[in-house]
Specification:
The chain is of the alpha+beta class. It has helices spanning about 10-20, 20-50, 55-60, 180-209, and strands at about 65, 75-80, 85, 95-100, 120-125, 135-140, 140-145, 155-160, 170, 175. The N and C termini lie close together (about 10 Å). This is Prophage minor tail protein Z (GPZ).
Length: about 210
């Protein structure tokens, strides 16, 4: 048995080996599944990063293999974080500013929010959620600092908009989660991963037997 070519005799030998040594066959399949799973995760990261304006490190952190194949349980599961991702992580992290009408000496600015002395906030600079999409400026957007985790994606900084005139009348804005993005690309990724599993199984089977 060489390469990816089989004839009827080879297939009979292959089946016979599996019947005689099912544990070894399972070991080969487990190895192949787990390598295919890691391939699928990396391809998922690539695809999500290419489609959404998120850093690669953020996608990698939140798209993980949550179950590996093992004896008696031949499943490899990849899961993406289901909790929403703040628009701050999509690029809604830069405040637009404009010269203030008030006396410059009275306006000290805000280094944490990127507001220089004598300037005032004027919304959020244009950014895009999808890399191929158009940029949007949020004139009423602003940056808030929260207790870690309150934003929903583990960050203590978020982009928000006003919902009323009261001090606490605002809400954090979100974009697609890594989990929802994974659902959109996994069908294509899985097809590629199946090919990897097949090739890896043949390699492992040949080595083990």
């Amino acid at each position: 048995m060489t390469g990816e070519q089989f004839d009827a005799g080879q297939l009979d030998q292959f089946a016979d080996r599996i019947r005689k040594s099912p544990n070894k066959a399972e070991t080969a399949f487990i190895e192949a599944l787990n390598k295919g799973g890691e391939f699928a995760r990396q391809r998922g990261v690539d695809k999500i990063h290419s489609e959404l304006n998120l850093t690669r490190s953020y996608v990698e952190k939140h798209l993980q293999i949550t179950r590996q194949a093992q004896p008696g349980d031949l499943r490899t599961v990849i899961s993406g974080r289901a909790r929403p991702t703040t628009l701050y992580r999509y690029g809604g992290d830069k405040i637009a500013t404009t010269p203030a009408r008030s006396a410059r000496r009275k306006l000290k600015g805000d280094k944490r929010r990127g507001i220089a002395r004598g300037q005032k906030a004027a919304g959020i600079q244009p950014f895009r959620v999808k890399r191929s999409g158009s940029s949007t400026k949020w004139a009423g957007g602003f940056i808030v600092f929260l207790n870690r985790g309150v934003s929903g994606d583990g960050s203590n900084v978020a982009m928000a908009i006003r919902t009323g005139r009261g001090r606490d009348d605002w809400r954090v804005l979100y974009g697609p989660s890594v989990g929802s993005a994974w659902k959109n690309v996994r069908r294509d990724v899985n097809q590629e991963a199946l090919e990897v599993v097949g090739a890896e199984f043949q390699t492992a089977f040949t080595r083990i037997f």
